[in-house]
Description:
Blueprint: E1 24-30, E2 34-41, E3 45-56, E4 59-70, E5 76-81, H1 84-92, E6 98-107, E7 115-124
Antiparallel strand pairs: 1-2, 2-5, 3-4, 3-6, 6-7
Amino acid sequence: YGDETQDFCPQNAAVQAPCPIVALSTTAAAKKTLVKVLVTSSFQASVKVVGKVNLGKGKKVKLNGGTQIVTPGVIAKFTLLFPQKLKAKLKQLSRKQFLWLRLTASAPNSVGPPTVRKLKVKLKGQAKP
């Protein structure tokens, strides 16, 4: 509107209502050497997906799914490849044992803190009996 007292979202000239808050919806599925994460967003947003696995004895590995622009109504697919240390650890674990992969999908908002969705994915051991 040209007057800050009338503009409910001064960070975005295209919006004349209060600044929208991005809502994310996520789901994940683990494979043998990777995890696929599907993300949808209520508004167009730059979404980043990362993960972390505790291997035990203070050792951790990080996974990076990268950043994508997610458009409303479109499912964005992120792929996080397992690093060699994680693959080796899973091969040591029996099929009854598992590790937890903690995933975080985040998107900035026009104002306030970013929207963050967290997921836990069970990674099953792969040792041969």
